Amino acid sequence: MKILVTGGTGTLGNSFVKNALKDNIDVRIASRRQPQEPLTEWSFLDLESGEGLKNSLLDVDVVLHAATSPVKNTSAIDVEGTKKLIEACKESRVKHLIFPSIVGIESLPMAYYQSKTEAEKIIKEGGVPYTIVRATQFHSLMDSLFHTLTKFPLSILPGQLKCQSVDVDEVASYLMELCQLTPQGTVDDFGGPEILTLKEMYTVWEQHRHPKSLLIPLSYLPISLFKAMKEGKNTNIEQKRGKKTWEEWIKEN
């Protein structure tokens, strides 16, 4: 079995590749920029233009489609790029496309999440055997968020928002399990082991990171996205599948 990882240099892709190599799985990274320290075979791929798709998919059995662009060119990469990938997978007769998505995206009014929802639909209707699995936010993302907030002497924190963060390595390990199976369609969400408010998460983070800035709690913002996260639309209490808690991850990193 040969696996192609689009977005193989990203947080999830990189974790998956390391996991695959430990198990002696034949894996190829596809991205626009070659990794400075390549772990394995690399192939140039520009999803926006489609350049490199044919070469990247050569002799590939399974595609882990982890490429994404949450900040800019989101529609071009996550939507149109996924369309191009699907067509190329059909031409190359790829046996299995695995798409890691995000929990609650249909309920969270955010352009990036809308693009992920559209990408899911494209994959479902695309004609390539697929597995879609949604995960909650990664511990590392929340760590980066708090680091960014505390760069300033004074910041605000919408502390009542909920989160169910998960260890990216646990998600990557599960994705590897899915690679060994036949296409499953849409499978159950993969959430972290606990649901916490941002205030609770920050309290833990502050104890171990010791920031110098002052964060002021914010109880209300008239923004629909914040309302949805306060209600926990980005979590799934029935799918606490990850094992490593937020505090355990913080202590290790």
What is this entry, summarized?
With 253 residues, the protein is an alpha/beta fold.
CATH architecture of one domain: 3-Layer(aba) Sandwich
> What's the total number of strands?
11
The outline comes out as globular
Strand neighbour order, sheet with most strands: 3-2-1-4-5-6-9
Question: What share of residues are in beta strands?
Answer: 15-25%
Largest sheet: 7 strands, parallel
Q: What's the CATH class of one domain, please?
A: Alpha Beta
**SS class:** alpha/beta
Q: How do the SSEs run, as a string of H and E? A: EHEEHEHEHEHEEHEEHEHH
Fourth CATH level, the homologous superfamily of one domain: NAD(P)-binding Rossmann-like Domain
CATH fold field value of one domain: Rossmann fold
- Helix tally equals 9
Distance between the termini: 33 Å
Report the uncertain regions.
none
Q: Would you give an account of this structure?
A:
There is one protein chain. The chain is of the alpha/beta class. Helix content is 39%, strand content 18%. The protein is built from nine helices and eleven strands. InterPro entries: ComplexI_NDUFA9_subunit (IPR051207), NAD(P)-bd_dom (IPR016040), NAD(P)-bd_dom_sf (IPR036291).
List the helices and strands and how they pair.
Blueprint: E1 2-6, H1 11-22, E2 26-31, E3 41-44, H2 53-56, E4 62-65, H3 74-92, E5 96-102, H4 111-125, E6 130-135, H5 139-149, E7 154-157, E8 162-163, H6 168-179, E9 185-186, E10 196-197, H7 198-209, E11 214-217, H8 224-230, H9 246-252
Helix pairs in contact: 1-6, 3-4, 7-9
Domain NAD(P)-binding: 7-140
InterPro entries: ComplexI_NDUFA9_subunit, NAD(P)-bd_dom, NAD(P)-bd_dom_sf
